[in-house]
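Appendix B. Extra example for self-study. Work through it before the problem class; the solution is given directly after the inputs so you can check yourself.
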Amino acid sequence: MNPSFIIFSLIKLVVVIGAVLTLVAYSVLAERKISAWIQDRVGPNRVAPPFVRYLPVIGPLLTRLGVFQPMADGLKAFLKEDFMPAGVRKTYFWLAPAIVMIPALMTLAVIPFGSQLGAQKMVLADLNVGILYTFGIVSLGVYGIVLAGYAANSKYPFLGGIRSSAQMISYELSMGMSVIPVLMIVGNLNLGRIIGWQAEQGWLVFYAPVSFFIFLVAAFAETNRLPFDLPEAETELVGGYHTEYSSMKFALFFLAEYSNMVASSAMMVTLFFGGWTLPFWGLDHPATTLGLGVAHILVFVVKMLAFMVLFIWVRWMFPRFRYDQLMDLGWRRFLPLALVNILVTAIWMWLKTT
Amino acid sequence: MSKIVNRKPLTFWERLYLPAILGGLRVTFKHAYSTLIQRKVVTMEYPEQKWTLPANYRGAPYLVKDQEGNTKCVSCQLCEFVCPPKAIKIIPPGPAGRLADRTNAEKMPQEFEINMLRCIYCGFCQEVCPEEAIFLQNDYSITGLSREEFIYNKEKLLSLGGVSPGIQKWKHKLEEAQAQENFPVKV
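Solution. Structure tokens for the complete assembly:
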């Protein structure tokens, strides 16, 4: 292994993790702002560090947009008392937030977020089994939540943990099944190759719309977002699996949810919406210049942000599913639909070759 | 008596959830559009924007002066007596105390304190005052950093209270007394 590879990988790693954590912080702000707009409110518009007052026009504008709110939120999370209830299983209680957060960030390793900058491929790990890796890591996320529910030694978190284990495992099946037609069409598990295929033949969402639909819904369930937020379910379970958590440990659960959103948005963009490519302006080839490379990254980020907004938007318009409805939808609707989808794709491909 | 509600089975489109989802997206988008683009915000951003208070609003009670800048209060202590939460404390001048700052008034309070933390804005003091010297005014946001700051003394109450263009009982008394003095003026 040559040293330049290690150095460049480290740089990419630091930049990606930094960018994702910033994105996560600001998606919390976006969540609050969009919810405010949908509910005819104003949203966070006050917080600003003292020097901003002296900026002429930009200062008040940024303050009204709540740009400084995430900093205040983060600071607050650090300054809160880290309360440990009596009777918790301490090791697991400490471990659970980390186990939730780590897989959420690890998923991002295989996402190609751009083509090339210079000679560097804009992906942390160009795995040949990218999709398998993602599904393997995503399924680890459930352990943190179950562990949090178990370690808290309290009824509401316990119920939340149980719900999440059942929900996430059910929807992982439909999610995995829904991607199989994509793999059949492309014939490769490498996410970079999948994007290359889409650049030549068109976005996969037009080839496999049913797959995309199932993947989208399953992504909502996997990230515990609102139509399927039964593990949290404030109205039923107080706070679900993180009822007993406070301070930075709670913030880690919170950030993990948003990192999961980032990861699944990135996955959807990569699998179904052509990743960093656009079919016009010559953006569909790996970049030869630095400018094009940056443009590719921007294209990817914009596509991803569109999905983030969709995640947030759906949260503020939809009531929660009942538990039996959730299970019914997962096992009796989406799983058969995904299987039929595989069959139909296979028949279609067979007809095309003969 | 039982009432049977006929629950129609859901149609195919309803069971698909999709029309409902699209409808929900439409409604939420309309709301976001009206707040964000058309600026139909109902929120009143408080410290910058404030309510217009009705004329009979009952805010914090303050002492008022008359048109000539005299203290109207005569330290009768009726308000102290009637105050349900015992927020008012009056120290009368005593036999050798300072006299009132206007003629024909017997006395004025040496000290007049209202504890704004105790005050319940009931308006009894205003109602009981024979001199029309204390009024519930428009202040509703009483703020401070310590408990001591909330005990308003006479000076503060007078400066906050301003001038009340009400009756000038003692002026009329004075005029009457003067009229008595020169009673047989017009012969």
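Self-check: Chain A has 14 helices and two strands. If your reasoning did not lead you there, revisit section 3.
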